[in-house]
Design a protein that fits this description.
By secondary structure, the chain is an alpha+beta fold. It is 37% helix and 19% strand. The protein has 14 helices and 20 strands. The strands form five sheets. Strands 6, 7, 10, 11, 12, 13, 14, 15, 16, 17 and 18 form an eleven-stranded antiparallel sheet that branches. A three-stranded antiparallel sheet has the order 5-8-9. Strand 3 and strand 4 form a beta hairpin. Helix 4 runs antiparallel to helix 5. The longest helix is centred in the middle third of the chain and has 19 residues. The radius of gyration is 28 Å and the shape is globular.
């Protein structure tokens, strides 16, 4: 009798595809460990990862890399599991969604039992059923995770110098540190012991970090284009932008909106100089109206808003991926907020005199038609489909960081993953939501509805969840009758 391959036992080709995809992963600075170092292509296993690496793998990378395997049912179930853990780790959870999510994880565990052997289901998978009840009683998971205590235990372990008396070593070092911290409160400009300086302290408003170059060879047309975009995106110049557009609309004489926008782009930087703004005034408005210096400062790396950004060229030589950006703008056709995705080509600082330097990014934007939410709810983009070539510049403080990861079995498309913003505690920032100019970006979009469509499609194929068509088959010989 021939037994088909089990769906939980992946063929070597699928394991190798998973390993090769993970070996190519480049994460943004501060996002997680270097995933490449965790993958052993010799044994086709993952090694030496910590609790945070497991969290990142389960909530971010697993629903993407699982597309590289063959069994459709396993892909669907693992993606459901990743969505569940992604959902429970959100900072804001709607209480009305809790009953539906409890039913969702119950269905997911039943589907897992159809794919994996009984030995897999010990107490740990069963605990997933109780996480929703725990959120109901204690609030979002991040408020009662164990990472804080695990890090503190690591700190206490470093206090041990006499292994014969570990508790005494911990108490002595802890009380000494408490006493010194108390003394530093009475010392001017004193820093607390044991607390490193925040990596973005003094950098939230923008500071270059690598590849500085002072340039005077910039084309005047490109400089004016960057200047025009800066004026149109700064709040302090909104009234002048609105006034110029209103004048163009009143004198358009039946011409189209496209003509108004074109004339605004061509004439605004010249028009504003004749509006009676003092040429040598001390206000930002005066300095902005008469344009930047012809000498600009370019960077290959720039820290702002708790992110580290690199140019696309710099990323090719780096072990991290920091060139991806997301910008939220207003769709002129519908008036709704819309996300635009791109990659940084150049980083400039425009010098308007005094202490007014404005960082601005030149980006290669993806066409709206190339941004699609796939069947599992992941946002994908085609980076090769470039648009908005006449509107490439954006203020550095208006964008959020994203990373792009190639979709397995479809190299033209990339899945969009939000970067990690490290801003809380830097320069007195307490709430990223109040500080940011953009909304939070989620990995999944309308996943519960979309996964139902995937389930319906998979069920129509009459595929057995416990079977892997491409897996290793075994032949069992029946015993001969006595």
């Amino acid at each position: 009798m021939d037994l088909p391959g089990a769906s939980n036992n992946l063929p070597t080709d699928d394991k190798r595809a998973l390993g090769q995809w993970l070996r190519a992963v480049k994460v943004p600075t501060g996002f997680s460990s270097n995933i490449k170092s965790l993958v052993s292509m010799k044994d086709l296993t993952l090694t030496s990862f910590n609790a945070h690496d497991c969290h990142i793998m389960l909530t971010v990378f697993l629903p993407i890399v699982i597309r590289a395997i063959g069994p459709e049912y396993v892909k669907m179930v693992i993606t459901r599991l990743s969505y569940y853990f992604n959902w429970i780790t959100q900072k804001v959870i709607d209480e009305a969604e809790l009953p539906g999510m409890k039913q969702f994880i119950a269905e997911t565990i039943c589907q897992l039992e159809m794919c994996f052997p009984p030995s897999y289901f010990d107490i740990m998978p069963h605990l997933m059923m109780h996480m929703v009840d725990q959120i109901q009683d204690l609030g979002p998971v991040y408020l009662h995770q164990m990472w804080t205590y695990e890090r503190f235990m690591s700190t206490l372990n470093r206090y041990v110098h006499n292994r014969a008396y570990p508790e005494g070593s911990m108490i002595e070092a802890y009380t000494t540190e408490e006493a010194i911290n108390c003394c530093t409160k009475y010392i001017r400009d004193g820093n607390a012991i044991g607390l490193p300086v925040h990596p973005h302290e003094g950098r939230t408003s923008g500071m270059g970090c690598t590849g500085r170059k002072d340039r005077t060879d910039v084309e005047e047309e490109m400089l004016q284009e960057a200047h025009h975009n800066a004026l149109n995106q700064l709040v302090v110049m909104d009234k002048w932008v609105e006034k110029h557009v209103e004048e163009l609309w009143s004198g358009r004489d039946g011409r189209t909106e496209a003509w108004v926008q074109r004339q605004h782009k061509i004439n605004f930087t010249t028009w504003i100089k004749h509006q009676g703004i003092p040429r040598y005034g001390e206000s930002d408005e005066s300095r902005l109206a008469y344009g930047p210096s012809s000498q600009i400062t370019s960077w290959q790396g720039y820290d702002i808003n708790g992110y580290r950004f690199h140019t696309k060229e710099k990323d090719k030589k780096s072990a991290a991926q920091n060139c991806g950006v997301r910008y939220e703008g207003i769709d002129e056709a519908t008036g709704d907020t819309k996300a635009y995705f791109g990659q940084i080509e150049q980083i400039w600082e425009l010098d308007y005199g005094g202490e007014l330097q404005i960082p601005i990014f030149q980006c290669q934007w993806v066409k709206p038609k190339a941004v699609v939410v796939d069947e599992y709810g992941l946002t994908t983009v085609e980076l090769g489909s470039v648009g908005y070539k006449d509107d490439q510049w954006v203020l550095a403080n208006r964008v959020a960081q994203v990373a792009y990861y190639p979709k397995p079995r479809d190299s033209k498309k990339h899945v969009v993953v939000s970067g990690k913003q490290r801003i809380v505690g830097a320069d007195g920032v307490q709430s990223p939501e109040e500080y940011n100019n953009y909304a939070e970006f989620s990995l999944f979009t309308d996943h519960p509805h979309k996964i139902k469509q995937v389930e319906s499609r998979v069920n129509k194929t009459k595929m057995k969840p416990w079977c892997c068509p491409d897996g290793e088959k075994r032949t069992v010989l029946a015993s001969k009758p006595k």
